[in-house]
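Sorry to interrupt, but I need a hand with the structure work. Can you supply me with one protein entry, sequence and fold together? No commentary is needed, just the two lines. Leave the record below and I will have a look.
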Amino acid sequence: MINAPGPCVLFATPGMLSGGFSLEVFKQWAPCEQNLIALPGYCLAETVGHKLMRAKLPARIDVDKSTQIDVRCQIHQLSFSPHTDSKGIMDLIRFLSPKNVILVHGEKPKMASLKERIESDLRIPCYYPANNESQRIESTQYIKAEASKSFLQSSLSPNFKFLKTISRADTGFILNERAESCVQACDDRVAEGAVIMQKDQHPKIVHQNELMDILEAENHKVQVAYCCPVCVPNEPKNVALSPGEDMHPVLDKCSLLHFLYTKLSNDFQDVTIQNDGDCLQIESLTVSPCPKGKCPHRRHVNPVSTSEAVNFCCTWSMDDEKLAWRVISIMKNLELKTH
C-alpha cells in the first residue's frame, strides 16, 4: 500500500514521528518532493516531528543514531489538539454536575487556575493531586451492609499499644523536685475487611482471610530472595571444604545462627525473632546459612583476601520489604568470630 502508484491520503500515528508506523512511512516518502507531511499540534523536543518543524528544507534529518534521511517533501503544521480547552471542560462539568472533580493531566499552574475557576463558578470541590499521590474524598452515599462473624471478631479484638514512659518534667511542668512517671496506653483498633456485593444479595463485609474462599481464587504471594554475605576474619583452618560446599568449616550452622540471633535481637527489640536451629524467622523474613557454592540469589563478588564470607539465604514477602533490607544492611556490616 505504501508504494502503490497514484495519490493517497494516509492517517498514521504517532503524530510526532517518534516511532511506529508513521515513522516507517516517513522514511520512504520524505525524499520525494511531491509528497506532503502534515504534523498536527505539538511535537516533543528531540522527536523527528520537532526536528522537521525547526529545519529549513531540503535538509538531512537524523532519524536515530545510525540513520539519516534526506527530506525533500513539503512539511505543514496544523493547529490541532485531541484535548479540549478550559471552556470545553467547564461546559462538560456544568452538564454532568458531579459531586467532585479531579484534574489528572496538565501543567500544574494551569490546573491550579482551572481548579479555582471550577470551585468559584460551579461551586464544586476540585482536586489536582500529583503523580503517586492519593486523594481522599468523603462519600455522601451510605450503604447498609451485613458483617460476617470473622470480621466482627477481628474488630472486637483489642490492639493495645503502650507508649513510652514519660515524666511530668518532660512536659515542661515541674511540679516538684521528684518527677512523677506515668504510662500511657491507647487502643488503636482497626478493622480491615472487604465489601462484597453479589446479585440479589445485601452487601456484606467480610474478613480479608475469607475473601479468597468466597471468590474461589488462589492467593498469590510474591517472595523475594537474596543471598547475603557476612564477613569472617581470615584465620588458619584445619578442615577442608567439601566439593560444592560454601560454608565456613570452623563455624557450624547453630553457631552462625546463634551469633546472628544475638546481634539482631539487640538491634530489633521491637520485633520477635525466632531461632529454631535451622533458620531465623523475623515476620515473613527467613534467614538460613547457604551451603551452595553457586547460589542463584547471590549478587556480590568474591570477598577480599583479608576475609572470607559466610553466605545466608534471605527470603521474605513484599509486605516486609523495608524490614528485610534493614536486617540485610546490618548483616553486611557484621563480622563473625571463629572463636
